[in-house]
Fold:
Amino acid sequence: MAALVRALGFRAVLCRVRAENCSKLLRMDMKRLMKQMQQAQSAANRIQEDLAGKTVEGTASGLVRVTMNGHGKVQSLKIDPKAVDGDDVEALEDLILAAIQDAAGQVDDLQQEATRGLSIPGF
Structure:
């Protein structure tokens, strides 16, 4: 080391040592970042699987029921015969829309609950 200091000078050696240390630190930070990204991906996958297995039911006046999974996909639609009036199709359309919106709101709540408290270091 003494010969290197004499040949390059103290400042040059100091810069070289700092550069090597910085390089090591960057590699360590990249490894940590990659690990955090893998943890986040793993947590996201678990949440997606969990949501796929959950269902919610939206209703409109008890006459129309819509079932959705945790991803917001409609699984079923049930219409009570009392809701069907050939002279008032618009009322049935409104009931269906209201039931879908009710279920979609519940899916939003389910998704927010699933991601609440997600603790990934550094995020």
